[in-house]
Amino acid sequence: MKKFLLLFLLFSFTAVFSQDSITIGSKHRIFSKALNEERTFWIYLPPDYNNSKLAPAKYPVVYLLDAENNFHSFTGLQQSLAKGPYSMTPQMIVVGITNTNRTRDLTPTEANRQAFFDKTKKQFQQSGGNKNFITFLEKELRPYIDTTYRTSGYNVLNGHSFGGLTAVNILLHHTSLFNSYVIIDPSLWWDNEIMNKKADSIFNKKDFAKRSIYLAMANKKSIPQDTTTDMARGIRKFENLLKVKKPKNLRWNFRYYENEDHGTIPIPAEYDGLRFIFEDHLVQVKEAVQDPSLVEQQYAKLSEQLGFSFTPSESYLNWMGNYCLGIDKIDNAVRFFKMATHYYPLSTTAITVLNQTVEKQKTKDKK
User: Fold this and answer.
1) Bridge partners for 215 per DSSP
2) Strand 37-44 to strand 26-32: parallel, antiparallel, or no bridges (unpaired)?
């Protein structure tokens, strides 16, 4: 009895204290000459990235501002949206950029606004450093990411509040830096709506070359302590400029979130923003197993809409092929595995699975 009790206690102790780590990303540092300081960024790699059974593939990249606030939630959303045969977005690398001096980096001009509670002090001690921050993104961080990781060249910028203001600034003045933008409750009130004034002129002249933007606005209730120009008015004015000016080759969508305020809007807006950008990514599985050509048709549609070449992942094609085998549609399984070898000719897994399935097909045809 004592021996049994001892073993039970030993097992219980092991069960309670045994644990494995769950990692969602890694921290990195780079010294920025543009900002004259060391900057930290966090990297999330999608599930297929290090899968040795798959051929090395290239991935779109999401650049996430204010990473210390939303890296965990955003990477969870992204992994869920890109999961399995019903994926609504491609698997993507996420680069989360943390702040050192947020107001300095994410505002385009210097502000001299007085503090609400003390008229002798400035509300913002440092501001107007957006130009240097954008140089950091364009000349330092982006090249580092593109040379260190397998990136496809399709880039998304996600920004909230001052981050949304930065996203608008980049959209207008550095349009080619990103392919798509998720702009969440942007602080377009800044400096007497200077970005709206810029947009009013630029929207008439620029070809946006199939850029996509998702603009989200929270429900804002005015309070006496609010010292800014009305945020809602600035965002609505930007929305109206999009409607009236109809910028060339700029695909956009706007949504007002009545039940969200400035602090709660990021998660639902990030979800909806990714769904909007990649709205043609989802393939109807039950239809595609009957006609595999629908997959290629859907990806051709997605590529045309976004102005960038997208292809189905090897893991997706493997899943579809195996699903067809499971429902005794061996001919369609062969078609999916042939797609995999076409898009991933260096994949030994794809070649092996195709050869095995072709042999099954021949055996079946002989019966």
Assistant:
1) 183, 254
2) antiparallel
Q: How far apart are CA 238 and CA 244, in angstroms?
A: 10
How large is the greatest C-alpha to C-alpha distance in the chain, in angstroms? Answer: 91
Alpha helices for the chain (secondary structure H): 2-17, 67-81, 102-106, 130-135, 142-148, 162-173, 190-202, 231-245, 266-277, 285-288, 293-306, 314-326, 330-343, 348-366
Burial classification of residue 65, based on how many CB atoms lie within 10 Å of its CB (0-12 exposed, 13-18 middle, 19 or more buried) = buried
Asked whether the beta carbons of 51 and 22 are under 8 A apart, the reply is no
Among 254, 269, 343, 302, which Cα is nearest to 89's?
302
**The pLDDT value given to residue 6:** 55
Angle at 26 (CA atoms; ends 22, 27), nearest 5 degrees:
140
pLDDT of residue 124: 62
∠ at Cα 63 (59, 68), nearest 5°? 125
Residues 331, 94: Cα–Cα separation, whole Å: 37
Please report, to the nearest 10 degrees, the dihedral formed by the alpha carbons of residues 46, 272, 281, 47 taken in order. 10
Give tens-digit pLDDT for 37-62.
999 999 999 999 999 999 999 999 99
Are 140 and 133 contacting, i.e. CB atoms less than 8 angstroms apart?
no
Q: Which two tokens stand for residue 146?
A: 């593109």
DSSP 176: G
Q: How many CB atoms lie within 10 A of CB 101?
A: 14
- pTM for this model (two decimals): 0.90
Q: Which residue, 131, 140, 133, 235, is CA-closest to 173?
A: 131
* DSSP 8-state assignment for residue 151: E
- Residue 300 burial by CB count (10 A; 0-12/13-18/19+): exposed, middle or buried? middle
